[in-house]
Amino acid sequence: MASTSRRWWWWPWATPPPFSSSASRHHKGEGWGLGGPALVKAVGWLLLAGLLFRVLCSFPSSTSSPEISEGKCNLFDGEWIPNPSGPAYTNKTCRFIDGHQNCMLNGRPDMSYLHWRWKPYECELPQFDEVRFLSAMRNKSWGLIGDSILRNQVQSLLCLLSKAEEPIEVYHDKEYRNRRWHFQSYNFTVSLVWSPFLTKSEVFENENGQSTSEIQLHLDILDPIWTSQYETFDYVVIAGGQWFLKVAVYWENDRVIGCHYCQDKKLRELGFEHLYRRTLQQVFRFIASSNHKPAVLFRTWAPDHFENAEWFNGGTCSRVLPYKKGEYSGKDMDRIMRPIELEEFRNAMAALGGSRNSANLKLLDTYSISSMRPDGHVGPYRYPFLKGDKDAKSVQNDCLHWCVPGPIDAWNDLVMKMVLG
């Protein structure tokens, strides 16, 4: 049956998900009327609760990065510190920024989000060195496989690299979703491979995101768009994302086995968690069994920072400062998807058993550093935006994708450190 829902083409789901975030459950005006002894007792309980919270927070989290080991710097555990020098490039020095992430050009008035850098607690994370990176990647090929968040990261990577040499675009498909750039002096290529589900899918949406039918997903078949190119890449960055939350019908062995949120169909509800887990298992199995052994970085879940509501009912992200360590505990969806990722990554590493192949698979754990940057999203600045515009309240905010330049540049700092040491 045709779906009447509508979403912006860039957004990961076509209909509101069947859940509410913790933020949407709070109501103004709720509280307690306290006075006299009751107030003293309440304060006492608050102090005790605060102490217990600090004690509990001192224990390791079940969702901590598998990369942590005693005596080894954990690149993903740290804080954002002031960076007076600002970004490595701007929208004036880089021409590879997509219009929807060009916050400077689109009128974002504050620039404070550009003056922070990621600092791991036990070591330094050098800023991206474009000459060193390109020199090390001479005659190599990179493939970045995923959805629009991977495209977001590719924009940052190209801007950083173009400080040394501007690449030539040598391929794009009709929709500009699959693209390839070549750095001639280094014979180095960067490919953006559009595969939002990583598995084989049929998507019935036009360029404006209007859907005429549910997405059809094949849980037992990986997307040939990326698997057919896999052997051409020396390095791979691969990730899933919010597309897994979409309304979809699930297939296995050429038959329908269920769906996610198909309210008007008599199908078994399997849920997106089932889809995500099965997909990651398939992906890691493919990587382990392939005769071709590129270096693979599995990038973790990208958080959003919608507040007051969600993307479909007026959610915004207007903060102008990063969160401090421990200040933000994540959203309901983070606490569902992230443990699945970490568990399946650990299982994949265990299956490799410390073999040579295990050295080729790394966790690019961008979740924590991203979750602390609510100030770095595009917000209302997807298009040219003027403060005071009479239609400002009706502007849809993007609190998932990142401004370029912005916090996402640190993802590529991490990539360089992990690849080149």
UniProtKB/TrEMBL annotation:
UniProt entry tagged with the keyword NAD: no
Name under which the protein is recorded: Uncharacterized protein
Recorded topology in the membrane: Single-pass type II membrane protein
Ranges of residues in domain Trichome birefringence-like C-terminal: 125-418
A GO CC term assigned to this protein in UniProt: Golgi membrane
Similarity comment text for this entry: Belongs to the PC-esterase family. TBL subfamily.
Protein localization: Golgi apparatus membrane
Ranges of residues in domain Trichome birefringence-like N-terminal: 72-124
Domain of life per record: Eukaryota
GO molecular function: xylan O-acetyltransferase activity
Organism lineage string: Eukaryota, Viridiplantae, Streptophyta, Embryophyta, Tracheophyta
Chain ranges passing through the membrane: 38-56
